[in-house]
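Consider the following input, taken from an annotated entry for Aldehyde dehydrogenase (Brevibacillus reuszeri).
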Amino acid sequence: MMTKTFMKNKMFLAGQWVSRENEMNVYNPQDNSMIGTVPAASEHDVQFAIEEAKSGQMIAASLPVHERMAILNRAANWIYEHKEQYATVIALESSKTIREARKEVRRCIETLRISAEEVRRMNGETISFDQMPGSENRVGYYYRFPIGIISAITPFNDPLNLVAHKVGPAIAAGNAILVKPAPATPLSALLLAEAFDKAGLPPKILSVITGHTSDIGDALITHPAIRMISFTGGLATGEMIMKKAGLKKMSMELGSNSPVIVMKDADLELAIDSSVSGAFWAAGQNCLGVQRIYAQNEIFEEFVERFVKRTKQYRVGNKLSEETDMGPMISENEAKRVESWVNEAVQKGATLLCGGKRTGAYYEPTVLIHVPSDCKISKEEVFGPVVSIFKVSDLDTAIHEANHVPFGLQAGIFTQDLDKAFQAIQKLDVGGVMINDSSDYRIDAMPFGGVKGSGIGREGISFAIQEMTEPKVVCFKLSMQ
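Applying the prediction step yields:
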């Protein structure tokens, strides 16, 4: 049985902890028990936070580099000192097991510490104005300045670290930021706000606004004072935001349908270990999750047999158990959606090798072969614990099939041949290629994002800081004697 925990929370509005008469319930997807409440913010709350952020952005921009660094490091230290509490909250409100949640907490701490380090590297460059005839008496440089107020909309699958990936760089860059966490997982974001509050972040710089998207979503994306929107979520929602937002800077990570290629010379044990983990981490609710595997003819049968055997060993159960590998999906409705996609594929001719069963919000780790190309599960992001394995004759065919979807976040290839590795690097239409690793590999310092329907811009702290600042050119015209 899960630990019964109930948390009645306030939201963090422009540096103040406030409650509201209207509340939202937060449920544990494992047994649908209510674990807490949060305020259901109104459009008025958003307008208030934005007005306060107008002052907050000036306070943030005026913070010296050493103070920004100190605040970010103190927030990281607070989380480290309370890491088990943070991990437990993640495990309770999301799909993650306690071991997966602990890893997310470690990554969040790293994200904030890297943010602190990157503050000191927010440098510009001198410009050789005398490269232009007639400008011999001009000297100057450019530096980067904060963009102003940022609206961040975050998903449920990494409810702490993906929020930190927006808040850490925003504060490092000297901006004010308003965060709207996913309604299913607001508690982790509020704990991040607590860490910054304890770290001494001045009021008005940060708000974490909990509420229903229908009530507060439009205000967070259309207000003219919002200069940038940082969104992580689905493609359809991202497109809607783009249409509504107006003239604003955009950073969007919109998911994927990630491919992995396994060549006949691959280390199969490595490929299987990496790809099983990559497919079923966080119940497959992971934008980098392995969804399609292309195995070369010569090793296809052996790969499939060993992959299925390893998948059947995956332990599904209580999220707080140290023995559990995979917990439930975020809701029973999401599990039913995945169930319907798998059923569609099977009805159209796919072969189900294992899994395919749902119990409430739980959906078993599932492996398919012979999946027709016109199935949803072939073309779209399943965002669940399902992987399809395809047979390919050669690398060119694998690359063609890997690219034949409207997404392009990351891909993996397993091979011992450097020429094949570099061919994949050059021809895969994605934002990142992992050699001898699955698509599900990331460190928090690397540039992260994709092409096509996978998004716009890059996260990863120093790269997010670039997105959250603008260059200002300074030129001195000298009186030459």
